[in-house]
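#struct-pred

JT: dropping the chains for the assembly here, can someone run the whole complex?
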Amino acid sequence: MQTTIGDVKNYLNQKITSMAWQRIQMRLLPEFNKRGIFLHAITDSMQIDRDLMAAINTAVNTLYNESLPSEFLN
Amino acid sequence: MSIKILRGEFYPDRNAYVAAGEPAIFHCHHYNSYLQAVLLDASSYIDGIETLLADSAQEIAHTQFKAFYGSNSLNEEERKKAVEDYFKFAGFGKIDLKGIDATGGVVETSSDHYGVAFKSKFGINKKPVSYFTCGYLAGAIEAIYDMELGSLEANQDLCIGKGDEISRFTIIRSNNRKNKLIASQQEGNYQLHSLIQPDTTKVDYTAIRQALTNMPLEGAENTGLIDAFGVLLTRHYANYYCNISYGFLDLFTTQMGIDQIEIAKELMTEAGHVCAFNTFGGIMQSNEWNAMIKPMLSSKEDWIHGITAVVNSFGWGFWEIQELTDEKIIMKITGGYEANAYLGRYKEKPSIPISFLASGGVAGLMNLVYVLDLPGRTPVTLDENLYREISNKPEFFKAKQLKCRALGDEFDLIEAVKG
Amino acid sequence: MKVFQCKEIRNCRRFYRYCYTLNAPIDAILMDKLSLLGFIEVNKLSEYSPQFRDTFKISFDDQIEISGTVSDKQLYLTVSKQYPELKKVLEDTIIEWFTSKPT
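RK: done, full complex below.
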C-alpha cells in the first residue's frame, strides 16, 4: 500500500521537528504542484509516488541529516 | 559639531530605536538564521530570493549612511570608521574597510554574525550565507563615496558558515543590474503612544524599559558580536526583516499563486516562535531577569507580564496585554515595526495579515510559560529536543492575527489560544 | 549537607555553562570571595527602581566567568574547557562561604 501524505507528515512532525513537513512542502512545492497536489487542497489521504518520496527523502537529508524509514522508500 | 560615530536614540513615545532615520530592533541569531533559511527553501524554483536578501540590506545601509553623512561632515577615513563601528556596535561582526575605494575591493573577517549564526544553528552550510553583509557593504561603501544606490554589488566566496576560517566579500562596480534598488522606507508609518502600566500586575513596565534601554548591549570589542541571554543578539534593521519577508511573499505569490500563500505564512510565523522560545526563554533564565523581574513575580501570569515588559524595550513597538488566562492571550500592538514598515513601503493592502513575528512571538511566550512550564522548571537547556517536546503537546498555543494595521485597522491584535 | 545544586545548561565547543542554585542568597561576603577569581563588574540596576537588585560578573580572560544577582540564589558559571579545574575552585569557594556563615 502506498504511503500517504499523512504518514509522512506525522513521521516528520514526531521524529524530526514540528515544522519539518512545512519546510519540505516549501522546498518541493513545484513537485507537489505538478502532481496536482496544491497546498490549499492537500489532504492527508493523498498518496505519494516513488519519485516524490525520493525527493522528500533528499530534502529531509539536506535539511536535517536524517532519512525517511525504509518502509516509506520501498 | 560633527558626530563621528553612529548610535541613534530610543524614542519612548514610539518604543523605537532610530539611528540616522533607520529603526533598529533587537533580534537573535535563531530568528536571523531561521527566517533566512525558510526563504531560501524556495530558492530552487523562485528566482530572486538571494538577490532580495542582499539588495534589501544594500538599500537600507545606503539610505542610512547617506543620511548620516548628510548631517555630519566626515572625511573618507572617518566615513569608513563610522561604517565599521556601526557594524560592530550592532552585533553584525567586525569588518575592516582599509582596502576599499570607490571601485570596490575585498573585505575579510573572522567574525561575521550570519556565518556564526548559521553554523551554530544548522551546522556547516554548502553555500555562503552572509547575504546581509554583502548588501551592507555594498550600500555603505556607495554612501562613503557619494555614489548612487545600486552602483556597487558584493559577492561572498569564503564563509564561516561553510566552515571556512574567514568570511570574504568582494565588492565591485555593478554592471547591467536587472532590478532597480529603492531607498529604504526608514521610519515608515510609525505611531505615537505611551507605555501603560497594567493594574493586574506588580511588574513595573516603566522601570524595566528604563533599565533595559540603558543597558550597554553592543558588539564585543574583539568579535563585534553581542552574546547575551544565551543567544547572539543583533541591533538589526526593522526594515530588513520586513522587506525580505514581504518581498518574498510578492515573489512567491507571483510565481506560485496566492492560493498557496499559507505555507509561507506558517513558516514566517514559525520563525517568530523560534525566536520567542530561544530569546525569551534565555531572558527568563538570565541574571537581569533575576535582578529586575523575579522579585515582582507571584504567578505565571506575572511571568507573561514580565516578558512583555521586556519586549517593550526591544524596539518592536508597544505590546499591551488585553486579556490573559492560562488558556488564552490577546495582545495589542501599537506602532508594531512590521506594520510600520509595510505601510511605509507598499501602497496595496496585503492579501493576509502580516505581523508574522508578532504572531509567533505571542504564541511563543505562552508556550514557554504554560506548556514548557519554565517558571517551574528553570534552569533548563533550550535545545531542539525541548522544542520538539513542547511543539508536539496537544495544549501547544497557536496564534491568529485578529486585527492588522496593514489591512486598515488602527492597531494589530494577536490572539494565542491553547490547542 | 548539600550547599548547592549544579546543572549543566550549555555544552559548547569551547566552554561549559552551569547554573548553581545555592542554599543561601548571595551576599557581599560571597561576592568578595568570588572576586579573587577574576575582575568584578557590578551593574547597579537598583538605581532604576528600589525593587531591582544589582547584578555582578566576575571574569578572567576567556577562562572563567561567574555571574549572579545580589540576594538571589542562582549563580552562573561559564568555564573554558581548557580550564575545567576552575569549576572545583568555584565550588570550594562556595562551600567555604556557606560553612563559615553563622547559623
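JT: nice. The two ends of chain C are 14 Å apart (CA to CA). The first strand of chain C starts at residue 4 and ends at 11.
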